[in-house]
Design a protein that fits this description.
Length: about 300
């Protein structure tokens, strides 16, 4: 099974509907990690995902920046989907539009539907600063558009089945699936092959927190630009909501100090009407009385 998995990794995909491998148990949740700085113009972010390698089990393929194979190409991430009693990995592909990827929220522009990280215009790619880590001065095609995610952000990594994302392709995504596609580039396939050989990237070893969660360039697993995953709490046990993705935050309120001028809250009276409070007693000075039993003075009468 191990040799078969390696061979399947090495085979380029001929169709967007191609199936990589099927497993009878679900992949782990998506790890939390930061995005490396973009290397230069023309690079598109491809999010990390869980793959499978025979007896080695699930292993993490780090997210990375990849040069687009041609101007106008957008990346549709792969996804795991429940079908026929097993979990099937549908491979990602390049195309003029982003298709269906299971409704999985991979972050950094891939919210589960489409891509909001940028767009092509006149042969150049324009990057949304709010979801991309842009720190190089040689990238001038940038803009800022806040992404507000109104849905609960979770780390589920598969579609369908028990606990999976219940998303179905839209009509636009169905049309995108029928368009001509380009399989993953050689750099992307090298990223998968190298990840399959890293013991620390196996879920059985890292327990869902890979030491190499993202890389700045494909196939470079050491040095600057290699990002570790951050441990995530087990929200399924506590019932708490998972943390927001670092680039998917609610818009800041106009008042930076919302508690500087709190509103007056009306007091609620108990049943039977408001409580009547007894006024405090008034302490008056007693009248002057002469000593020694003398007759009262005129002022005291």
């Amino acid at each position: 099974m191990w040799l078969l998995a390696i061979c399947l990794v090495a085979i380029p995909m001929a169709s967007s509907a191609g199936v990589f491998i099927s497993v009878n148990f679900a992949p782990p949740p998506l790890p939390l990690y930061a995005q490396p700085v973009i290397p230069g113009p023309g690079y598109i972010w491809t999010p990390g995902y869980w793959s499978y390698a025979g007896d080695g089990g699930y292993f993490w393929v780090p997210g990375t920046w990849v040069l687009a194979p041609y101007p106008g190409a957008l990346w549709t991430p792969g996804y795991w989907g429940w079908a026929g009693g097993v979990y099937v990995l549908h491979m990602g592909y390049w195309g003029p539009r982003v298709g269906f990827y299971g409704g999985i929220n991979y972050g950094y522009g891939y919210t589960g539907v489409g891509y909001v990280g940028g767009y092509w215009r006149h042969g150049g790619f324009y990057y949304n600063r709010s979801v991309n880590n842009i720190r190089t001065t040689n990238i001038t095609n940038v803009y800022t558009r806040t992404v507000i995610n109104n849905t609960t952000i979770n780390r589920v990594s598969y579609n369908g089945g028990m606990g999976g994302v219940m998303a179905r392709p839209t009509e636009e995504e169905r049309l995108a699936a029928r368009e001509p596609h380009t399989p993953p580039t050689g750099a992307q396939m090298r990223q998968v092959r190298m990840a399959s050989r890293q013991r620390l990237l196996r879920a059985s070893v890292n327990h869902g927190v890979p030491t190499i969660a993202a890389t700045r360039r494909p196939g470079v697993f050491a040095g600057r630009g290699v990002i570790r995953a951050r441990p995530a709490r087990e929200y399924s046990r506590t019932g708490a909501h998972p943390p927001m993705h670092p680039f998917y935050r609610h818009p800041r309120p106009q008042n930076d100090h919302p508690y500087a001028h709190p509103q007056r809250v009306p007091r609620m009276h108990p049943p039977g009407g408001p409580i009547r409070r007894t006024p405090p007693p008034v302490h008056r000075k007693p009248p002057h009385r002469p000593c020694c039993g003398g007759a009262p003075s005129a002022a005291s009468v």
